[in-house]
Design a protein that fits this description.
The chain folds into 2 domains: 396 residues, TIM Barrel (Alpha-Beta Barrel); 200 residues, Rossmann fold, CATH 3.40.50. The longest helix is centred in the middle third of the chain and has 18 residues. It is of the alpha/beta class and 627 residues long. Bound molecules: beta-D-glucopyranose (2 copies). The site of one beta-D-glucopyranose has 6 residues, from loops. The site of one beta-D-glucopyranose has 8 residues, from loops.
């Protein structure tokens, strides 16, 4: 990341002690910031370095710091704790390197405002700066489709929709907007983008990946990363590697293949990520040919670091090292020796710090490995500018502002894929006689999917931002004095919005892939009956599917004149869908995932030799337009 790039546009809040080498700072919102820590009197390693009259280069700074750190201080830099499990006092005491908010881990409540978030980050930062080392923390969060843990943030389409749009500029702008919304809370590290090249849509994380085909990843990856890193936020390429290739799409499962196949399919986007200068890479839960990635030194050290030249740091996944064999100490030793630099140990961080020190004393981990790991972590912190400006924040004018709403709405328009359009059933007339039904018709939470407000998503119809499809249709019709019909019988056109229910990770793993089974809304069945009845009565029947992946449409497609895959469009789904359905814009999205026709075809994708587009329901690359 380019140091200081953002400072011109950012509100910088720096403290006197840390900023002695800086010009005077703007202290904004000091009234909201109460910290019990008296850091003005602290003498820390970093404060000594920062006030020394010598001007140090980056590498001198890091080397000098490293040479003065104790083993305990180094080990602590290698740990990341979950916020719910650590207090500022512990941060000060341990000098921990990083803190995260897991999915839905809010400071107090789901609807905390940006001041509350920032106060929390500030308190941890103040505590870290007043530890004996005085090294700032990096605060990380899963901002995977907007700053999605923050109530009131713009929710962008999940990556599956962005893969359908396949628009690199759009992806850059979304990362930038997400970075801005993160910075309203002072958080500077996102666990995104996922670079999962997904081969089996039964996987619950399918929607986190752009595509089944590496070519789309290669088109989008650099933009996704630069949009964050050119705008003040460190990105994470994840999950390294092969997460999308597990047998039968089982989350955290085993990915099998020859080395050259695995490289071509799953390693490809990581070359782009490294070229873009990605600051961090997260190791995947999955195994490669039976060996857990968290302990796989060949891939993490030899390939990723030595061969591919990754210079940032590698972070483990949530409790990921616990899946390695042996006792906890063995697990820590295996992961660090394999090349993991920072351990995401939400709860066991304090024990882990002690065990690292112990393992070094026992000569189980070479000190050079520790210095390499800590050096990489300090480098990212340094290049982010944290040593000079540990407190950064943007004002609330960046939160869910008109630009971000417009951008999200554009993303929805571009991500929609028109699968079927017969009898001129689309576009809809703005003064038409329309009946709207189905579980997705009036539910913004469903449109957002998992990783929204909470880890498993927000199942409320109203998530505090956005407009539902129903709200949007109602507004459009009312402009011509119309309103939605109250029964399908009384309408000319029947629009049926089918939906999956929100899920994330393994909770979304699914063997029943029909419109009425698995993670699908139980209300889909009744909605499909309306479609069938309306079709039999010769109505114009339009289907919209809100889902994290293609589902088996079976014969249901016959009940629709037209059918639109809307993926997980996010908070602006209502308006974005209306823009295209009412004909103000044309469809441009094309399938970045094959749409299977049957169970037997799930897992056969456009990268396979056995792939036959004629046997699919809709092949990779498919998508209709009006024109
Ligand atoms: C997920 C990661 C995520 C991490 C932190 C893990 O369970 O696999 O994608 O970044 O949790 O929430
Ligand atoms: C956390 C997520 C994490 C998941 C892993 C949840 O409790 O909130 O961030 O990814 O656990 O299983």
């Amino acid at each position: 990341m380019k140091k200081h790039l953002l400072l011109v546009v950012m509100v910088i809040i720096s403290m006197a002690m840390i900023s002695c080498t800086q010009s005077s700072t703007t202290l904004e919102e000091t009234t909201t910031l109460n910290t019990t820590v008296d850091y003005t009197s602290m003498t820390t390693l970093t404060s000594t370095l920062m006030t020394s009259s010598e001007v140090l280069t980056e590498s001198d700074f890091i080397e000098t710091l490293l040479s003065q750190m104790t083993m305990q201080q180094k080990a602590a830099q290698m740990l990341q704790a979950e916020r719910a499990a650590i207090t500022p006092e512990q941060v000060q005491d341990l000098g921990i390197g990083s803190i995260l908010s897991g999915g839905g881990s809010h400071p107090n409540a789901y609807d905390d405002d940006t001041d509350t978030w920032y106060q929390m980050v500030y308190d941890y930062q103040a505590a870290a700066l007043s530890s004996t080392a005085g090294i700032p923390i990096l605060y990380g969060i899963d901002a995977v489709h907007g700053n999605n843990n923050l109530y009131g943030a713009t929710i962008f389409p999940h990556n599956i929709g962005l893969g359908m749009a396949n628009d690199a500029d759009l992806v850059y702008d979304i990362s930038k907007a997400t970075a801005e919304e993160m910075l309203t809370t002072g958080i500077t590290w996102t666990f995104a983008p996922a670079l999962s090249v997904v081969q089996d849509v039964r996987w619950g994380r399918t929607y986190e990946g752009y595509s089944e085909n590496p070519e789309i990843h290669e088109h989008l990856t650099q933009s996704a990363i630069l949009g964050f890193e050119e705008n003040g936020v460190s990105a994470t390429a994840k999950h390294f590697f092969g997460d999308g290739g597990t047998t039968d799409g089982i989350d955290q499962g085993n990915t099998m293949g020859t080395e050259s196949d695995l490289r071509a399919l799953f390693l490809a986007p990581y070359y782009d990520a490294i070229e873009a200068g990605v600051d961090t890479i997260m190791v995947s839960y999955n195994s490669i040919n039976g060996i857990k990635m968290h302990g796989f030194g060949y891939w993490v050290s030899d390939v990723l670091k030595d061969e591919m030249g990754f210079e940032g740091f590698v972070v483990s996944d949530w409790n990921g090292i616990h899946q390695l064999s042996g006792d906890y100490k063995n697990q820590i030793v295996s992961a660090i020796n394999a090349g993991v630099d920072m351990l995401m140990e939400p709860y066991d961080f304090a024990t882990a710090i002690d065990l690292i020190v112990e393992a070094v004393n026992d000569q189980l981990i070479p000190i050079a490995r520790i210095d390499d790991a800590v050096g990489r972590i300090l480098k990212v912190k340094y290049e982010q500018g944290l040593f000079d400006h540990p407190y950064v924040r943007l004002s609330d004018s960046y939160l869910y502002n008109q630009d971000h709403k417009d951008l999200a709405r554009q993303a929805v328009r571009e991500s929609l894929v028109l699968l079927k359009n017969e009898n001129n059933s689309l576009p809809l007339a703005k003064d038409g006689s329309i009946f709207l039904t189905g579980p997705g018709a009036d539910n913004i939470g469903y449109m957002c999917g998992g990783w929204t407000t909470y880890w498993q998503g927000n199942t409320s119809a109203d998530i505090g931002v956005g407009e539902s499809i129903k709200d949007s249709f109602t507004r459009i019709l009312s402009a011509s004095g119309e309103s939605l019909a109250t029964s399908w019988e009384s309408a000319d056109t029947v629009v049926v919005v089918l939906s999956e229910l929100p899920y994330s990770e393994g909770v979304g793993d699914n063997t029943n892939m029909t419109l009425t089974g698995g993670n699908a809304s139980p209300e889909n069945a009744a909605a499909l009956q309306v479609a069938q009845s309306a079709k039999a009565a010769d109505k114009n029947v339009v289907g919209i599917l809100i889902s994290g992946r293609p589902l088996l449409l079976e014969n249901y497609l016959d009940s629709f004149d037209s059918f639109v895959a809307a993926w997980l469009p996010g908070s602006e789904g209502g308006d974005g869908i209306s823009d295209v359905l009412f004909g103000d814009y044309d469809f441009t999205g094309t399938l970045s995932y094959t749409w299977p026709a049957s169970y037997g075809q799930i897992g056969i994708t456009s990268v396979d030799f056995a792939y036959d587009p004629d046997l699919t329901m809709f092949p990779y690359g498919y998508g209709l337009r009006y024109s």
